[in-house]
Amino acid sequence: MSYQHQYVDGTTVHFPLGKVVCIGRNYAEHAKELNNPVPSEPLLFIKPGSCVVPLDGGFSIPDDRGSVHYEAEIAVLIGKPLSKKPDAEEVRDAISGFAPALDLTLRDVQAKLKEKGYPWEIAKSFDGACVLAPFVPGDAIEDLADIGIRLVINGETRQDGNSRDMLNPIVSMIQHMAGHFALQPGDVILTGTPVGVGALGKGDELVLELVGHSSFTSRVL
């Protein structure tokens, strides 16, 4: 499995593929739809870079581990090192790009692990669990509090969210992450998913959008 970060113009981003740092339950309505409490502080977890696959050309999902849920998210590509307590200007300068992404979850597996109080990495970090579209340049988006993310499946809009509804805004979220572990060029931040998650099936046709900036079609192979 191989992956190279790309911009929408086809240019390859010359960063090594790093880790994927994620935040859970960053939209209150999404937490409620899964009957989860809204966290009082950022809920972080990490996916390995090995789970990243491109959206272009279609992607596969496991067929032997129960329900696979889609979670459309705004992805942020880090282009400069960040650690400890970067200020807001340093974070903004370190953002190399934005893209729509899918954070895939083995929902049945996750539920069983959570019931037992076990870690649930295998439900979130399997091969192919992070599906990334090409990035628009970081300076193409001026207002980080007004980024739309939309997912249409088989002609039906399933998720239609905006960064304005995040419990933890993008810059402060990245500051918090960098305070716990250093971020390096090539790392990707997944910023949480809005309400509307559900199961994917083989053959599903998808349109994934960073509203007003990029739109991509794909399918589940």
Automatic annotation (TrEMBL):
Domain Fumarylacetoacetase-like C-terminal: 19-220
Assigned keywords, A-Z: Hydrolase, Metal-binding
Protein name: Fumarylacetoacetate hydrolase family protein
Gene3D superfamilies: Fumarylacetoacetase-like, C-terminal domain (3.90.850.10)
Membrane-traversing stretches: none
Pfam families from the UniProt entry: FAA_hydrolase
Record GO terms (molecular function): hydrolase activity; metal ion binding
PANTHER family: ACYLPYRUVASE, ACYLPYRUVASE FAHD1, MITOCHONDRIAL
